[in-house]
Amino acid sequence: SEATISEKTRTIEEQTIAMNTVYYAFGTKKELEEKNVIEKEGGVLGMGKTIKLKKDFNRDYFIKVDLREFNQLPLNTKKAKVITTHPVDSYHFTGTKTIESLVIDKSEEFWKASKYLLIVVE
Predict the structure, then answer these.
(1) In this structure, what are the phi and psi dihedrals at residue 39, rounded to the nearest 5 degrees?
(2) What does residue 5 show for φ and ψ, rounded to 5 degrees?
(3) In this structure, what DSSP letter does residue 34 have?
(4) Which tens digit of pLDDT belongs to each residue from 30-72?
(5) What is the 3-state secondary structure (H, E, C) of 62-84?
């Protein structure tokens, strides 16, 4: 019946949307700590600490996008560091004196390891 077909189509569409749903956020260290997104790990007396996504990070802070339509993130900041795991050859930053944007060159590779993109800016 037609109802069954449209229901199947809807299910496939929903699955496709879910598969292509990714999340991004950026902010200063201070903001991201306050919002319960990052934690510092390792290091001695505050030196050499690495910043990483908390295990139970605040997902509400992230913006939901469709990876098929999302290939550039305007940042306009002095410095930017990608915290989440993405292959270095799948993206690049634009701008000379400042960082204008993060550009995703190879979407499929970029999102393979992590559906979340987190950038710490200064």
Answers:
(1) -140, 155
(2) -65, -50
(3) H
(4) 999 999 999 988 777 667 788 999 999 999 999 999 999 999 9
(5) CEEEECCCCCEEEEEECCEEECC
